[in-house]
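Exercise 7. Predict the joint structure of the components listed below.
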Amino acid sequence: MARIDGARLLADLRALAEIGRWQTGVHRPTYTAADMDARRWLAARLEEAGLDTAIDGVGNVIGRSRRAGPRFLLGSHIETQPYAGWLDGALGVIYGLEVARSLPDIAIDVAAFADEEAHFSPQLGSRSFTETLTDHDLERFANRDSGQPLMAALRDAGLADRPRLRIRDMAPQAYIEAHIEQGDELESKGLRLGVVTGIVGIRQFRIGFDGVQNHAGTTRMAARKDAGVALVRFASAVERAFPSAAGPRSVWTIGRIALEPGSPAVIPGRAELDLQFRDVDAGVLDRMEETLERLVAEAGREGPCSVRMEYTGRTDPALMDPRLQDALERAAERHAPGQHQRMPSGAGHDAQTLARLVPAAMLFVPSIGGISHHHTENTSEEDIVLGCAVLADAVDELATAAGNGLPAGSLPQAGKDAAHAL
Amino acid sequence: MARIDGARLLADLRALAEIGRWQTGVHRPTYTAADMDARRWLAARLEEAGLDTAIDGVGNVIGRSRRAGPRFLLGSHIETQPYAGWLDGALGVIYGLEVARSLPDIAIDVAAFADEEAHFSPQLGSRSFTETLTDHDLERFANRDSGQPLMAALRDAGLADRPRLRIRDMAPQAYIEAHIEQGDELESKGLRLGVVTGIVGIRQFRIGFDGVQNHAGTTRMAARKDAGVALVRFASAVERAFPSAAGPRSVWTIGRIALEPGSPAVIPGRAELDLQFRDVDAGVLDRMEETLERLVAEAGREGPCSVRMEYTGRTDPALMDPRLQDALERAAERHAPGQHQRMPSGAGHDAQTLARLVPAAMLFVPSIGGISHHHTENTSEEDIVLGCAVLADAVDELATAAGNGLPAGSLPQAGKDAAHAL
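Solution:
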């Protein structure tokens, strides 16, 4: 079995968590100074590990092994949600670094994909890497909070003139991403590892309401066109209607509301909310979207404010490769017998983008209390080290199988869903 | 009759509107650089008009006539709501300047009271001037948007070490404030002047919801403590319950909503809204507040989020002085026969604070389309000039009456409501 250095792994995770540290967590939104510091720190670690490393034109940090032979790509992302936790995607990236160091005879490449967290657009870096982004996309994306155009942010970060790296130039046999679970299912069942079967699709919308801004004292109730009232009515209607449209594991969230001008003495003339929903079943997602469209149409008919709805993000559900799942499961059973399960991922991950072009898989470790995207996010040191050992062992087994004269073609290809998505 | 210079009046209003100009309106929140520029500009104009002028410790701009005899205080405020209109309080202040210039033989003082618009606390300047603010109040107030403490803002504006001026050192016979109507009642009736009978009281609250911040994909719907959902439910309950608690002319507004952290992929752990309501009847205000308290208690009992409610502002209703109303009405009838009416004010004004210590009155001019607190706010030039002429004429008549050997005591004193409030 592969041998990883648990102390070295933990030390690197802690060193990365110091960059943009906030309380017990980390604040590293994409392309901020802290985020760019983290990318440069990671590139230096990958170089030290003997990988040829570059930060590409969208901020992807890619380290390439100098070894010949079947290639394996390990990674995740290192930027964070605002004021979020220290592990999240950083775990999978530092696992990649540690596995590459521990298995120097295998051609292991490591990637930290930019902006998985969608400060500009979800999974921006892995979509660039898989060539599913157009130049037009890059020109229209903007920061979800500040409105800064992506191209301006890339220029400010010194990235705009760099080439964008592509998966076709690396041709890995497989992509494997480790991540914290971000839910409490493993912990509540007393398990320590999750082998992911599929990743939910996400549909995200911005819904805007236009009324008339006016004085909050002199405008009679009957004469108002209050965009905030329209928003509250709409949000209530979503809460009432979605349970019957959704599937048993669907989730939906209104994460942001803004009233303009946002003053207690002024009737809001404009209001806006961000709504997203997730499910592994595209049919369920379609049903929820139809419900949303109906509610928007009804709100527009009722008045007095007008309503508009636009897509702000969309990822399709993706199934993980069955043979990679098997390898992860066997390694999990060797290291922690009976303490693992197969499970879907409620969160989106770069693996779903990669899965369109290459066999992909994911490994989960438990989140204490199910908490993530918050500074108290954590995983026990024992589980952090266990997960890395299982990942290294699975890669070792896969490389041995691939190296034993088996042609690359005998490794699993992207599954039905991935082929369909192409 | 007094003679004012309409062209000079309009030129001064336009010059003031250039400071902090935004589109066709003005952006001059209290103590910002633009607001302080405007205060210095005004002080220079008052000095030019022969008034001894000072900017005091909370930013009040006070110009004092060097004349002896019965004193009249005219004014309003010059800071604005965010991205608001060019007239609003500026109208009443520049009226004061123009009337003082036009009636040099009368002891006319002019005031621009700071922060009537409640960026820190409603009618902060007039409450300081009437000594109804404690030092403790000044230490606890903070900017409603940025959270900056008032004392820090006063230091940054260079005001913190200045004395605070007091009405007792000036002892005016009366305070008269002109203002745009900010509603469409005058325009819709074809009238040009409103003599105000009373000013609504305002109660303003911040209501906060505490849940648990978590990942929007991995946290099952049943396991969530979503502070945003709690806020939307509460706001809906307010919209359902308030109509039966309110009076026929009551108004209520949710002008601001904030979800934390405000990201589409994170379940809000905290949420907050600002709610205010207004009526001329304190009993109606009590009933609305009781309803609000009941809804807060119900939301807390229902869970899963906790709810807290705090006062963020309160002004009591105030009646205007009947004899000052009579003088304004006679002047209105001389200048625009049959084109005026008596009416309540749905907006709060410094006059309600002054009315606790001195006879007070207000004069309204029409707002085109009823619009205010928006950059399209406007009043016709003819109506602007007419309002100033009526104000000057009323002051002239009142001064003549006071100067004709009538003791100051024969001028009206603060009415029943004002006496009660003391």
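Discussion. Confidence is low (pLDDT under 50) at residues 405-422 of chain A.
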